[in-house]
Write a structure and sequence with these properties.
67 residues, 0% strand
């Protein structure tokens, strides 16, 4: 369940990235939609990092690295 939430948040981050690009091209930087898209993207990324850290802390995510 945690992995699905992380993947969905990453997809939402990519969608926010492309919507920001669309607003940059369409509005030419004259509206606040680009800034709002950036705020959403940063928030989603912070939530994704927090979920990954919590997953490692709780043991739901395990690293298979041998080093």
């Amino acid at each position: 369940m945690l992995k699905i939430a992380i993947v969905l948040l990453l997809l939402a981050t990519v969608i926010s990235l492309f919507s920001g690009l669309f607003f940059l091209v369409k509005d030419e930087g004259r509206s606040s939609r680009l800034v709002n898209s950036l705020i959403v993207r940063v928030s989603l990324t912070a939530l994704t990092v927090a979920l990954i850290a919590w997953g490692f802390y709780s043991g739901q995510l395990v690293s298979q690295v041998t080093w």
